[in-house]
Amino acid sequence: MGENIEVGVYPLEKAKELAKEQELDLVEISPKAKPPVCKIIDYKKFLYEQKKREKSLKSKATKVTIKEIRFGPQTDEHDYEFKKKHAVKFLQEGAKLKAFVFFKGRSIIFKEQGQILLLKLAQELEEYGKVEQLPKLEGKRMIMFIAPKKVK
Predict the structure, then answer these.
(1) Is the peptide bond before 35 cis (omega within 30 degrees of 0)?
(2) Most buried by CB count within 10 Å: which residue of 34, 104, 108, 144?
(3) Helical H runs in the chain?
(4) Residues of the chain falling short of pLDDT 50
(5) Going from the N-terminus, what domains does the chain have, and what CATH number goes with each?
């Protein structure tokens, strides 16, 4: 019920009277209960603490960052290894990875090469992250998402 008040079932008028005596508010906690559950508290303080609690929960929530890595359909081995190193670093930092192959002009005829490249990357990054979305062609881009594995 509140401080210095015995917990129990009170008629509405009595509960309002008790709240007025303590110069506090009568707040309904769960209206669907039989009888409804109320508490005598300082409502402004209650709202303040609720906001504070929500703010702390929000600050503890993880923010997902998405890092992008761009390949061409004929990316050579050195560039591939270089970009793969960056991908490993991003996944270890806990960021999601968006790897895509960008097709310029007529290079769209090499879409199989682009898919092979992305699948090879996914296979080599298996210990750092898991594929969230397999390579999919969207316009002139073939996109694949990799989420980091949870670190124990």
Answers:
(1) yes
(2) 144
(3) 12-21, 43-60, 77-92, 111-124
(4) 152
(5) 12-59 (3.10.20.80), 66-148 (3.30.110.10)
